[in-house]
Amino acid sequence: MTKIALIGPADREEIQRVALRLEERDAEPVIVDTRLEADIHLEAGREEACGASFAGVTGVYVAALGLPNPRVADANGEIDVPASRAALAHSQATWAAWRVLLERLSRRMTVANPPASYEVHGLKPLEIATYQERGWRAPATFSTDAAAALLDAGREPAPHGRIRKDLVGGYGYTEVFAPPADVDEAKRQLAESAVMVQERIEGDAVRAFVVGGRVIVGAEVLPTGFGEVDSRRGSTRVRRIELPGEVCELSKTVTAEWGMLFAGVDWMRAAGGREWVLLECNSSPFFVELERRTGADIGGALADMLLRRARRVKP
After folding, report:
1. pLDDT tens digits for range 78-122
2. Is the N end or the C end of the chain the one with fewer CB atoms within 10 Å?
3. Taking the model in full, what pTM does it have?
4. CA dist., res. 146 & res. 277, Å (int)
5. Is residue 133 part of a domain?
6. Is 188 in the same domain as 242?
7. In terms of DSSP bridges, do strands 203-211 and 262-270 run parallel, antiparallel, or are they unpaired?
């Protein structure tokens, strides 16, 4: 029986859905539960993580690695600096171990998605700059950790205003950018860290799911709250839509650009649908709720892709 490893919290719906789809196809899911200590072992003929063995595995789906939190705070929210430094070192070591394990596995089997694709998640300014270099329409973006630069940028006119995002995707919500009134306010906004500010695109948020080089479904995901700029917050309206051919093709190109086999490519459909603006490519998107609302079988497509490639590489 073909074995496919599923890496992520065992209670995450995406893990459970892909496991079910694999079982329906007479394959065995091997769940690597990242709620547990990573405890990674690499030896000749032995690879283990989170108490699970990769023996006999011929494909891998990575939903979430569950890296340790590098931030330690007391009950009042005050950062414990020495403890946080130790926690950061532990998190970095765990991340390094996962990268080695996944790189080793990817040399003999399909990994969706391999470590080489992760830089797009952790280096958002690089992602946007790459799109702009390719000539693809992406939001005007700047990043800085300098208060004076943030203040100057806030004085420049923007037709629809700007939004603020984390440089590392997935950890915080997108917020409306409030231009600082002075240098002191700019320093408070920075809070000793860099920020990324983008032009705000007026339009509808759309996500294209790409699996194994095919666009499985496109859907608009719109917040129901007036003025909300992050569709992950609060209630949303989700509707399956037909994507234009050029958007489908570019979604596949973007996914391949970052070496991903599975991705959610985010767009803004602006100017009444006459302009499509490329926002970002997500390497491990949530999809179960969108399946419920659109009827698309993303989990089945992911299972088919993993099994098809696993059987192709068997000796």
Report:
1. 888 889 899 889 999 999 999 999 999 999 999 999 887 876 666
2. C
3. 0.86
4. 28
5. no
6. no
7. antiparallel
